Structure formats: C-alpha cells, structure tokens
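Batch 3, record 17
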Amino acid sequence: MSSTYGSKIKISVFGESHGNGIGVVIDGLPAGAAIDRDAVLAQMARRAPGRDKTATPRKESDLPRVLSGMRGDILTGAPLCAVIENTNTRSQDYGNLLAMPRPAHSDYTAYVKYRGANDIRGGGHFSGRITAPLVFAGAVCRQLLERQGVRIAAHIERIGNICDARFDPVSVDPSLMQRLSASSFSLIDGMKEAPMRAEVEAAHTAQDSVGGVIECAVTGLPVGVGEPMFDGMEGAIAQAVFGVPAVKGIEFGAGFALAQMRGSQANDPFRYENGSVVTETNHCGGILGGISDGMPLIFRAAIKPTPSIAMPQKTVDLQTGENAVLEIRGRHDPCIVPRAVPVIEAAAAVAILNLM
Amino acid sequence: MSSTYGSKIKISVFGESHGNGIGVVIDGLPAGAAIDRDAVLAQMARRAPGRDKTATPRKESDLPRVLSGMRGDILTGAPLCAVIENTNTRSQDYGNLLAMPRPAHSDYTAYVKYRGANDIRGGGHFSGRITAPLVFAGAVCRQLLERQGVRIAAHIERIGNICDARFDPVSVDPSLMQRLSASSFSLIDGMKEAPMRAEVEAAHTAQDSVGGVIECAVTGLPVGVGEPMFDGMEGAIAQAVFGVPAVKGIEFGAGFALAQMRGSQANDPFRYENGSVVTETNHCGGILGGISDGMPLIFRAAIKPTPSIAMPQKTVDLQTGENAVLEIRGRHDPCIVPRAVPVIEAAAAVAILNLM
Amino acid sequence: MSSTYGSKIKISVFGESHGNGIGVVIDGLPAGAAIDRDAVLAQMARRAPGRDKTATPRKESDLPRVLSGMRGDILTGAPLCAVIENTNTRSQDYGNLLAMPRPAHSDYTAYVKYRGANDIRGGGHFSGRITAPLVFAGAVCRQLLERQGVRIAAHIERIGNICDARFDPVSVDPSLMQRLSASSFSLIDGMKEAPMRAEVEAAHTAQDSVGGVIECAVTGLPVGVGEPMFDGMEGAIAQAVFGVPAVKGIEFGAGFALAQMRGSQANDPFRYENGSVVTETNHCGGILGGISDGMPLIFRAAIKPTPSIAMPQKTVDLQTGENAVLEIRGRHDPCIVPRAVPVIEAAAAVAILNLM
Amino acid sequence: MSSTYGSKIKISVFGESHGNGIGVVIDGLPAGAAIDRDAVLAQMARRAPGRDKTATPRKESDLPRVLSGMRGDILTGAPLCAVIENTNTRSQDYGNLLAMPRPAHSDYTAYVKYRGANDIRGGGHFSGRITAPLVFAGAVCRQLLERQGVRIAAHIERIGNICDARFDPVSVDPSLMQRLSASSFSLIDGMKEAPMRAEVEAAHTAQDSVGGVIECAVTGLPVGVGEPMFDGMEGAIAQAVFGVPAVKGIEFGAGFALAQMRGSQANDPFRYENGSVVTETNHCGGILGGISDGMPLIFRAAIKPTPSIAMPQKTVDLQTGENAVLEIRGRHDPCIVPRAVPVIEAAAAVAILNLM
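Prediction for the assembled complex:
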C-alpha cells in the first residue's frame, strides 16, 4: 500500500476505520511557525459526521492528539504526527461484508489485492474516515499558506440536480472565501441550501444516495508555482484530490467545456492592470503550462453518490461462489458532498504547499 | 523543473523545441524483453505532424535514436535513452514572442518562473513537441503490457460540437482497439470523420482553433492493480495525463455524470460470469478504491483548443510594460486532438506499467 | 526535516525525546503475513536502556502500541503505525542546554537550522531514543526476510581498544547468528565481554565515554538484489545505517583494507561448489556492482563515543555570545555500542527488505 | 535498474560502455545561471583515460554534447541532457567474458539479475566509463556551489602503502583546494607522487593492480545543511559516493578512528572566533546530527584495486558449468585512484547541491 504524498511536504496517512487509531505524519513543515489549534479543530469539525441532517449519525470525537513536531503551538521542524483514537465503532454491522463485497466500494478489489487479509470493517484503510487526518494535515498547511497570502475555499457546486452559483473566475471575493471555509454546508448562493437538502432527503427516503460536484478556488498564488509536465499544478492537485475516496473526475478552469470552445474564446487575453499582468478571462483556471499565472486557481471535482445504500443490491458471495443480494446496515450518509468540501480544500492545501 | 514520472518505471523527459534534441530516459524496464522497433515507430508516426490536413505542415523526421538500454532489439535492463534530433526549426518565427507572451501558452508563466532564461522558441520545454519522447516511452511500455494481456486504445470522443460514439464500458471489442491504436484519426464511428474534419477546417478558415475530448480504454488488467489514496489508479493516471500539454480535465467511468446520479444507479452490481466476478455496469470506470476491478478501465481527457491561432490577440508587451496585440506566425495545428490520441495512450501506458 | 526511508518499503519515523510519543509508519508491508509480536519485543528489549551496566539508568517501558496495519497478528496491507508513549522524562536536566550546545551533539546545528524552535530536550528528534521505532520497524522487516531465508546478525566488533573476533566472511554459522541476534551484549568471542565491560567502566569512572565498531552479516540473500550506481546495496545500506545517530563510517567486505591490497589479493575467485557459484574469499562483502552475489553480505559501522560525558566541556553560550563551560547532567550511557547492535541490524533489515 | 539520484537536483545517468552513447539528465538546475563549459571540460579531462602512465591507453574524445537545458552558456531551467558518443570501442576484447565472469566485477551478478540480457561488453552500464557523465553533472553542480562560496577538492590520500598528507580538518587552504581540483594526480604533498607512481608501476609490472583512498574536503558550507536521520549529510553523500564503482567504504571526520577514542577526545569543543561559532577540532567531519556545522566537511572513500588484472584468475564457465581460468585482455588501468578523484568530487558536488 502507499498512502503518502509529496516531496517537500510529505504526508503519510495511516489507519483503518475500526483499528486502534488513525493519523498522519507530516514531514517538512517549517520550524518556528505557530499553529492555531482551534482553527485546525474548526476544519475537522466541518468534516466530522453527525453535525447535520445530511450526515451519518455516528458521532466521533475526532480530536487529534499531536505526538510530535509541536512544542506548545510552535512547529519544531521535526515530523508532526497526529493521532485520532478510534472509538464508537460497531463492527458487528459489517459481519456479512466479509463474504459479500458492497457494490462501488473497495471491498472486492481490496479483498483480491490483499488476499483477504485487509481489515474490511468500515472499509478499513479505504474508509472515508481516514480523510480526517487529511483534513488535519490540510488545516496545518492552509495556515502556512495563509501567511503567504494564499487562500483556499470550496463550495458545493452541485448535489444531484441542484446547482449552486460558480466562483467568478477572475475575481474571487475574500469575504466569500472566509465564509465558505468556515461553513459546514458551503454554498455561494445560500438560497440553494433548502433545495439541496431536499434532494438529499429525497434520496434518503428512497433508501438511496446522491452525488455532486465540489468547486474549489485558490487565490493569492504568486506567478510561477508548479513545474512542467508531470509535476504541473494540474497533475499535482489531481493526485492529491483523487486521494479522496469517491472523487471520479477533476477539471481545471473551464475544463471539459473547453472541448466545445474555439481558441479565440478559450484563450485568456493578457492585460496590464495596475502594473500587474492579469488575464481578462480565466478559462485556464489560473494555470498555464502547469504553472500558476497569478489568477485564481479554480478546479471542480466530481463526487460519486455514497456507495452504501439501504436498499437491497446485487452482489456476489465470495465464499459460496454464487450471486447474492446484499442489504447494508450501519450508519451511512445519503450524501457525503457537504462533508467532502473541507477534505477537497485540505487536499488542495497539501498539494499547493508542497509545490511552493 | 521536473519532468520525471514514476517509481518502478521512471521516465525522465528532456528537450526543448528548438534545442539540439529531445528525448527520454526510461529506467526500470525488464532485461531480456524484445522490443518491436517498427511498432514503436508506428506509434510515433501517429503523433508526427504533417500527416493529415488537421495538422501543422512542419515535417519532422522524428526518428528516435536509442543510445542505451537496448542491444539489438533486446532490452538490457540498463536505462534506455532515446534521442530525437531537432531539425527543420524556423526560430525566426518566434521573434516577437520574446516580449509578448502568447495567450493560453506557458510563455508568461515560464518567463516569470525562469526569470527570462527559458528557451521560448517553439515553447521550449513546454512545446507539444516533447510529447514525441513520451509517445516513444509509451510505445515501449505498451508492448510490455500487451504481453501481459493489457491493451490500450483511445479515440477522438469529441471535436468541438461533433461527437464520436463511446466505448461500451463493460465490453470493449479487441478488434476495435487494434484498429483505433493503429489509426491517425481514431474514431469508433468512422462516419464522424467528415463532420469532425469540417469542424476543424471551419476553425482553420476562421484563423481559429478547436478543442475536444479523448476517451481511452484499457482492457485486460488483472484485479488488484493500484494502491489506496494518493497512489490509486485515478491519481496515477491523472498525473501522467496532465503531463500532456493542453489537457485540462480528466474523468473516470461516468465521471462528472455521477454527480447527477443516485447510488442505486451509479453502483455497479457484481455478478458471477463464467466463474469470474464482473460488474453489470461500469460507472466506476474499472476502478474501485483506486484499485482495478478487472473491468475495462475507461477515462476521458479534455483537450483545450490549440492556443496558437492566426487571428490577432490581446496580450502584453513585457518590455514596454504596455498592452499589445499579437499576431502569431509559424505553423500550428488548428486542432491537436487527433495527434494527441497516441499521446494520451502513451501516458496511460507509462502510468499503468508503473503500477503493475 | 525528513526522516523517511525507502521506496517499496517506506519508513517514516517521528517523535522527539520529550514529546508525547515517538513512533514509525511502515508502508508497503505484504498483506496476510503474520508477525510474532514477542519476537519484535525481544529486539526492542535489546535496545532498551537500563538492562545492562553499560547503559543509562533511565527505564523506558518502550512498549509499542500498534494503531493500524495489523489485525491480531496479521498484517492487513495498510500502513502499519506503531507508537511508543514517552514517560519517565526528566526535562529539567536539560535546562542549560537551551543556551549551551553540547559538543558533538546536534544541539548547535539543529538550533541554527530550526531557528531555535526545535525541541532540544533530550536531543529532541535527534535523540538516540528515536532508534526505538527503527528497531520496531527492523524487527518486523527481519521476520519477513527470515521467511525468505535471509538472516541478519551483528556483534560488537570493537569497544575502544578491545576487539572481538570477526565473522568468517565466506561462511557465517547460523547458530552463531541466532545467538548474536538474541543477545544484549553480542560477541562472537564471549571471552571478550569482561575486558570490554572493563573498558566501558574505565571510561565511566573517568567521567568519559568510549566508541566502537559494529560488524553486521546478512546471509541467505539470493544473487541479484540491488541496483546499479546510486541504488546499489552499499549506498542503500549506508543511507539507512547513517540514519542511526553516532555512526560516522561504514565499510563493506574488506573495506578500507582494500586500499592496501593488490587486485590479485582483493579479487574473490569464483568457483563451483555443489553446483552453485561461490567465491573462495569474500573481500567484496557479498556485493559486486552494487548487487548481491550470494555470499554473506558483511559490513562494519564506526560508532563514535557517546557525546554526553560528565566531565566539564568547552562550549559557547548562544545567549551571551561568550565562551562557556558546560557540565552535562542527566542519564547517559558511557558506551552505546552494545545497544546500537540491534539498531544496526534493524537498519540493515529495512534497507534489504526495501531492495528485495 | 535505477541510476537516478536526488530529489531537488535529480540526476539520471544512462549508457553502456559499448553502446551508442552515454550521458546524463540533470533536472532542477536554476534558470539563468551561466555555466563555464571550459571548466566543465577541464573536470572531465581529469577523469579521461590515457592522460597518464597510471591510466588505460584507450583514448576517448569524451566531449559531451548538450542536447537541452542550455541556450548558449545559460541554463534554461529545463532538464539538461548531455550525451557522450561512444567511439573507439574494441568489443572483441570481451568475447570470452560472456561465459566467464571476471572476479570482482559485476559480470556475474548482472548476468544473474538481468538473465543474461545485459550488455557485458566493457562492463556495460557498470563500466567505470559511465562515471564520465557523473563528472559532467558534478562539474555543473560545483560551479553553482562555488557561487555560494562552497568549494570541493579531493586528493589521493593513499595508493597501496604510500600515503599523502591529510587535510587540516579545521582549516583547509583555498589555494590548496584550487590546485588539487585542477590536477590530474592530486596530492597535498607533491613529494609523494614519485613513490605512488612507483607503487602503481610495480603492480602493473606484476600484471596486477592496486587500490587506495581518496580524501575529500568541502568548505564554505553554511551551518544547517542536511536533514535528520536518513537524509543526513553522511547518508546522502554516502549514497552518491557508493554510486561510484569500486568504492567499498566511506568515513566522515575521524571515522573509524573514533572507535578507539574517548568522548573527551572525540568531542569537538565549541568556541567563538571572530563572532562565529567554530570547533577547536573537527573529528565529526563538519557534520553533527546529519547537519553541517560550518566547519570543513571531510570524508574519505576506500577504492578497491582495479578488478581487471592481466594475470590468469580462477573463475567459472557459466556455459559449461565448470571451473575455469580467465585471462583478461583489453586495456585496463592498474590503478584507478587518480582518475577517481574528480569522480568523488563530482559525487560530493551533486549530493551537496541537492541538499542545499
């Protein structure tokens, strides 16, 4: 297995949903920087379950304990390790999963890859729960970025058929970003909360789940961050964002819409503005040649519907070798998109700090 | 700069469009394997310019010379280096670019990042030309994959407003794949060639360019390839594919369409078929938890329109510090999508061999 | 900072001597393998302080708690994280070190590098204490190696002026290896224990410390492990072994003695023995071209005397900017060589498993 | 295979002794820096064969051709690739080696590892010849280091039984360093040249070869270069230096002599000198806790005798499966130590620039 990311800032995530604990080691952080622990906890609270009707009723304390790398609130320069104990697990809910892989989960592929030795309870290392240490890491990284003027915020761009507004790609309002990155149901247009919640509730009532899209903006990047080819910003951010379970697509700037554009429309004209070079539009999402151009970096990630649904599903029984029907019990979000917002922000924070 | 990819198979691409030569070092190839050089050249010919009305009239020999790593046609196990000499360059076409960055190109970001020292002629290291060594590397990797039963083929899913058919996600016809991966204008539905060429020609006539989407399928993968989180197949393939200039989005399986689905629709039911576990649908694109599930791996990449267009464009003059208008001369494809098809296949081949 | 090692088996060590805890994340272990926890603890006990007159009286429980990567005694394939809580610390012993760097310690260099923010108590991340998680990692790796027939054992080749016998380089006795790797004062020639202990005691009495050499043998390696140039076995093992504090030299086979040899003496002649290719001598230490040749792999590491000595030492006062005299209190081994033996074995185990 | 080094500065060496060419890709060099090509060639000339009675009579042009990464004499920031064509090879000299591995060479281990597919002619990728691109890379890196005040010089500390003086570890004379790093037979004490050459000639006359030790000093390093544990300066330099064929040992500062010291003798006292912190002695070789302390960094590398000797040697015939006697023809240095001096300097330059 490999759950590490980065070269300058190295993240190593560990843990299984129903093991003793989960956590992260962050290597490469600058000595002497102060970390606001409350701000870290605030980010983790946005991801924590049970805070919202759209989320699973399982409650986690999810309070991380820092074992190393900080003295008081100051980074020592040594690798920072934070651990979250696992409590409140109900493993008996997962009994029949041992033989019957849940559709759209990693159960079957992990079973084959790890020859049945992986810890399937709660999805094991593939659980959405291990995004908690990723949010921790991202919350640390984002504080360091903010001191360099770099801000990150994301919002629910879509749940099912209900869409939020999108960021203005040439000018993202700082106070909007602040509001979004403090919210547990992040929307540009607050009027969309009710219909989105209705969409989720409808899926829940139907013993079903629903997917969505998250849009993320990064502002304040200097020109010149990112490397050519395989270490360009798109690839680096994509690798981090695809590390978040349930992400199945990513696009930068106008993304897939560029396919239907002409160059004269897609190309972002340069212009001087107050002595700085800006672009009049931002179809490239703030990235040219893999390198930041100083405009807002904007990307969207597609989130598939929660795979665990209450209605019966067709699967196989790996012990009997026969087709089977699975009914999943346990506590599952009908829609993980709201809780995934801070996770996407965290992945972006880690990727960008690593490139700077 | 960093133009390297991979851990088990390491690719290091070098070269600038108008330097002495471009090439690639491939480390980690298995000793003793035979490489069909003609098959490699056939792949490179698909990418080579000047073979098609949609492509730039610049002709390149583009014949790679292998400096090391092969004795006759046999891999020695040592790093394989292949070099392509640069000839037929017309650097004078790029004179005014030194001061006026081309919109949607890397000119401006590279100028800032490399403090004006980068070789801007032809885009330098950011040129589409350095996808030639990537195709070389991919052509070697794909031969090794084919011997393990893994096949890769892509096609033009869209140019502008004209769409090809899509792959049947649960069963990709091997003879179709063979036809596609030998074509220089790869389409599932050959009837779409004429309207697509008309779309390109219309853009060309309008001194403009047009974008598109490439869809790629990988079949024959065993269950269990890929690692969790950041080294999952989505992230690994994305990093390689975003290494290809002009790619601005990637989606796996149903991708962004998953956002509008319910779980009951998106989840791919498992079923036994001839003793093997298969899925009845393939919305996940053959990847669960970052790991291959044995079904066809399918992804689509969004390609932006060629940035270099003949019509005048707004830009800045970095020497005078004033706004300016740029007219790009030189030879440029009005649509690079057809030539990008073998490049996307190559990126996929490198990424997948690296994970196996 | 960077305290990570490896590519296939990735080790990430974290912790500071007087922080909340220390530990290690091990990524890349094979799913399904059983780990003998008692055997792991036995290795950790060899390194633990307070078991021997040569060691510091500080007692540590040093019992690692596995947070992830194991279910029962079986590796799940997910990253294994083991944590050791820090207890029994006496930080007040380190008060004056904040201003006065201890000679031959990392205090001064870490102070400059981390701008005074590093945790100096007990040496912080540079403490010999963080070799405990390395021994944990090595103990896991060595069990996996043993199942492939690879054995590792080291002994105290020298303390001060007293030397043990050396391994027979062409044939290392398996029962000797077993005895050594279970001992807390590992010697080939047990008669040397008394004079070595006397050497240590003499240093201790003189408020001084003493260094030594550790010799390590690895048997059962197949031919062909290791890569050319920078990933040869010498370099890979050296990088791991220099990760152990106090190591200042390493040599393979005859090592520095080769400098005084002629080729006719140094070259190890090949010969068939029972159908296998062996060498008659083993001056190369079992490594040719960076690759194992099937003979015992043998190396020696030089260990400097414990830097912390009780007698007054000249240093500087970084606060007053004046020369000063330092008297180190606290608990310190007059000789760490015996306790370093399992650490060197652990470093070798990690390096070799990573290459296989 | 893997012949890559570094993270910030990545070196990828390719080539086989009798293939089409050898070379190196250097990734991560700073854009805009000027490179003195004559100074690069001067370093390569020090390593080139045929310039000295101690060296093989094979003459190589060894003139590197830069394919990319430079425009004129200026680094563009793109990966720098330099290629040296292979000419003047006499492959017929290596006919019987295909079956009979040369003792102390990589022939046998590479044969097994690469299943007979490696290019054995001239040692293939394991040839001392591929140190030429390493010297190229080192010569580029050292120019960049010099502009930051960092100087590197090495000398022949020993050939067989004849020893040169050693560097004064607390103060290495800059003019001495300049002289050494321009010499093709680098000695502190020029009076030792005659006896050393006699030692080599005696070995040559006896159809034999002889080994030696190279001592290297690096001055002008700021305090704080290097990372803890596995990325400490000792490990990083060791990995680079063991990438040089024939190196079998490395020690820093007093190295193995520390084993016989007491702490009171080994510890280097700190003292203020002109407002700077210095150490009165330098037994640690300028490295504490893996991090540079501002004093000269000093290490020694043990070089084994040239394995290829003219006298008959015992080996095996891998085709007949019987013991055999081998007579090596071809051109071989009786002592490679003088030519290895610039190679060791180059390895040090690459390792140190990568850490800075």
